[in-house]
C-alpha cells in the first residue's frame, strides 16, 4: 500500500513538472517573439470627434520705473506644447509586445478621416506609445511693446486648444515567422487652435 502511494506521488510530481516546463516553454516562446509595425490606419467612430479647450495663460506684468524706454517681448505660447496619447483596447497585449517604438503620423484636421479605415501621411509625427508624448506647436506668437518711463503693462492671453479623438488599427508583423497581429484603440491629440489677447498700458500710480 505504501509503495502504491509512493508511485502515485511520484507520477503526480512528474506530471506537475512536465506541465510547468510546458508553460515555461510557451512563455519563453512568446517573449522571444519580436514585432515591427507595418501599418496604422485611421477612422472616425461615433464617439470620436473634435472639441475646443479654453486655457488661460498666467497674467504678464511689467513696470518701467527707469528714465528710458523699456522694450518688452512676450512669448505667451513658450511653455505650451501639443500632446498625443494612444489607448489600445487590448492594453495588456501591447504592453507585453516586444516591439521597437516608431513614429507615426497624426492629424489636427479630422476632416481628413472618414467612417472607413484609411492611411495618413506627413503632418505631425509622434511615437506610437500608451504614454503621453509632447510636440511643439506648429505656430508661434511674439508680442512686442515699448513702455515709456513711468508706465506699466498688463497682458492677458487665452489660448484655445483643439482636442482631437480618432480610432486607429495598428498592424504588427512578427520578424521571424511574419505572422501578423492587429490591435485597435483610440488616440487623443491636443493642437493649437487660436489665441486671444488683452493688453493694457497705464501710468504707474
UniProtKB/TrEMBL annotation:
Domain of life: Bacteria
PROSITE patterns membership: PROKAR_LIPOPROTEIN
Protein name per the record: Lipoprotein
Species annotation: Autumnicola patrickiae
Amino acid at each position: 500500500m505504501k509503495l502504491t502511494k509512493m508511485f502515485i506521488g511520484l507520477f503526480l510530481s512528474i506530471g506537475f513538472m512536465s506541465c510547468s516546463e510546458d508553460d515555461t516553454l510557451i512563455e519563453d516562446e512568446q517573449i522571444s517573439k519580436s514585432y515591427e509595425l507595418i501599418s496604422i490606419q485611421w477612422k472616425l467612430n461615433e464617439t470620436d470627434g473634435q472639441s475646443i479647450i479654453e486655457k488661460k495663460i498666467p497674467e504678464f506684468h511689467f513696470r518701467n520705473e527707469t528714465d528710458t524706454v523699456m522694450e518688452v517681448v512676450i512669448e505667451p505660447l513658450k511653455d505650451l506644447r501639443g500632446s498625443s496619447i494612444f489607448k489600445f483596447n487590448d492594453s495588456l497585449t501591447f504592453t507585453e509586445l516586444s516591439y521597437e517604438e516608431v513614429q507615426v503620423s497624426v492629424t489636427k484636421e479630422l476632416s481628413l478621416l472618414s467612417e472607413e479605415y484609411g492611411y495618413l501621411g506627413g503632418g505631425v509625427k509622434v511615437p506610437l506609445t500608451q504614454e503621453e508624448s509632447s510636440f511643439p506647436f506648429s505656430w508661434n506668437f511674439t508680442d512686442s511693446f515699448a513702455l515709456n518711463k513711468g508706465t506699466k503693462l498688463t497682458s492677458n492671453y487665452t489660448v484655445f486648444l483643439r482636442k482631437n479623438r480618432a480610432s486607429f488599427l495598428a498592424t504588427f508583423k512578427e520578424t521571424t515567422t511574419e505572422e501578423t497581429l492587429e490591435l485597435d484603440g483610440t488616440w487623443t491629440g491636443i493642437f493649437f487652435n487660436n489665441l486671444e489677447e488683452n493688453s493694457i498700458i497705464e501710468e504707474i500710480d
